[in-house]
Specification:
This protein has helices at residues 24-38, 73-82, 88-99, 116-125, 172-175, 177-185, 205-220, and strands at residues 11-16, 42-47, 102-108, 149-155, 190-191, 195-197. It is α/β, with parallel strands linked by helices. The chain has 2 domains: 11-228, Rossmann fold; 231-264, no CATH class. Helix 1 (24-38) crosses helix 7 (205-220).
């Protein structure tokens, strides 16, 4: 990392989701941990496959729920979150997120989505009353998890051109929108531009070395790079129906890009 501009030590949570400990994703997760610790930061790791993380939300997540009642997941999660009685594995991961100044998600893109185990981590950890809910600040703003940085590090088997503006898979920013905007920004975290390694199934050693150099640069900017300037729900850009106001200027922009403010 660049020692010319030292940063104050921070706390970072790395969440890794790949079943093979010798995989590219595992190597990138380990590289990030080493780089961040070498820079003086404190790092915790949630290796979801190694943890045998339970991916499905069910009644066992909510000890306050009784079998004679219909399970309403949002209501049950909020009730047990506020009562501090969630299942221990969920409570432990929530504590890590609260502790962290930044969260890094490391995963392969499978069927245009994070692996099911990571989606299950999101589903179970970001309960009502923790990541969202009526008793916390409004979403898509300086929400309950505001002040934290968030970075996606993703590997893709396809070539970079196929995820470009005219690529058949769609732009990567659109594919990752549910995570970048729907998880990070919804809860108030500031998402950075994703770090992506393409053609990952057969990555030559020289390209892996180049990827690590670029990743080191991105990690060096984890707390200094400008986040994606998503529009705020409370910033005057949306009406009460959460629809972008017709007079909001977004020249030449359509689709999901409408919800990103033009950069200066």
């Amino acid at each position: 990392m660049n020692e010319a501009a030292p940063q104050q030590p921070k706390k970072i949570l790395v969440v890794s989701a790949h079943p093979e400990p010798r995989s590219l994703n595992a190597s990138l997760a380990a590289f990030a941990v080493d780089e961040l610790r070498a820079a003086g930061h404190e790092v915790r790791v949630s290796d979801l496959y190694a943890m045998k993380w339970k991916a499905t939300v069910d009644a066992d997540d909510f000890p306050g729920h009784t079998a004679d009642r219909r399970l309403h997941v949002m209501a049950a999660s909020e009730r047990d979150t506020l009562a501090d009685r969630l299942s221990p594995d969920i409570a432990a991961e929530q504590e890590k997120v609260r502790w962290a100044d930044a969260v890094i998600l490391q995963f392969p893109l499978w069927w245009f989505s994070p692996p099911a185990i990571l989606k299950g981590w999101i589903d179970r950890v970001f309960t009502s009353g923790f990541g969202y809910g009526p008793k916390v600040p409004p979403p898509y703003s300086e929400g309950i998890l505001a002040g934290r940085r968030a970075l996606v590090s993703v590997t893709l088997g396809a070539r970079e051109s196929s995820f470009s503006d005219r690529g058949i898979h769609g732009q990567l920013t659109d594919v990752l929108y549910p995570v970048q905007h729907g998880l990070f920004w919804f809860t108030g975290m500031a998402p950075l531009e994703p770090f992506a390694v393409y053609s990952a199934n057969e990555l030559p050693e020289d390209q892996f070395a180049a990827a690590k150099r670029e990743y080191a640069r991105r990690l060096d900017g984890l707390f200094t790079d400008d986040p994606i300037p998503f529009r705020s729900l409370v910033g005057g850009d949306y009406d009460h129906g959460m629809r972008l106001l017709p007079d909001v200027e977004a020249p030449g922009t359509t689709g999901l890009g409408l919800h990103v403010r033009p950069r200066d």
